[in-house]
Amino acid sequence: MVFSADGNPKESANINKKINQIKSHYPFLLDSLESKLSTLIYNYLSFGQFELARASLWQLASINPLKSLQILRRLILGPPPEWFSSPSVRSKAHLSWLCVIEFTAISKKFSTDIAPIPASVINRIQFDILLTSAHVQFDESCSDEVIRELIHYHKALSESETSSTSEGTSSTTSRQPLQVSLYKL
């Protein structure tokens, strides 16, 4: 059964009816459908066409939710460097964030046992979106050296927060000195 992206049952019934028609008239189109949908998803995303990829992801999820979540997890951890951005998906960080949103929605809809995306990965994606937005906002006058410094401080903050949480101390007390040192520079 195929679900529409918004979960509309009437639209889902129309989609299922069309698929049954295709099955009866053109069965060769449905051979290795999962593989074809996966290729289609990657092709759409490589050209910055997220909405088309999203529709294909939901079709794949209705057939094999685990496969769609594996694709999303791979993309969340970093899309290939040669992929294009678009006005709707401005950077790789934005693509990763959109994939996190779809990963969460598909996981909830199909109740899979796949592990959630770690908070540290989500925090890094959010930070990367902020860096990308700042870089664009300041007409790309922000040097690579400044970007590397910000990444370094974010990594130090994240590691400090992780170590203080594992030691059982409050993460806010350990974060304060690092923030102060960041502002003193």
Structure notes:
Helices cover about 70% and strands about 0% of the residues. The protein has eight helices and no strands. It is elongated. The protein starts with 8 loop residues before the first helix and ends with a helix. The model is unreliable at about 170-185 (pLDDT under 50).
**Helix proportion range:** over 70%
The shape, in one word, is elongated
Fraction of residues in β-strands: under 5%
Give the strand tally.
Answer: 0
Distance between the termini: 58 Å
Give the biggest beta sheet: none
> How would you classify the helix and strand content by structural class?
mainly alpha
Q: Total helix count?
A: 8
Topology:
Layout: H1 9-25, H2 33-46, H3 50-63, H4 65-76, H5 92-110, H6 119-137, H7 144-166, H8 171-184
Helix pairs in contact: 2-3, 3-4, 3-5, 4-5, 5-6, 6-7, 7-8
Summarize the entry for a quick read:
The protein is 71% helix and 0% strand.
List the keywords:
185 residues, mainly alpha, 8 helices, 71% helix, disordered C terminus
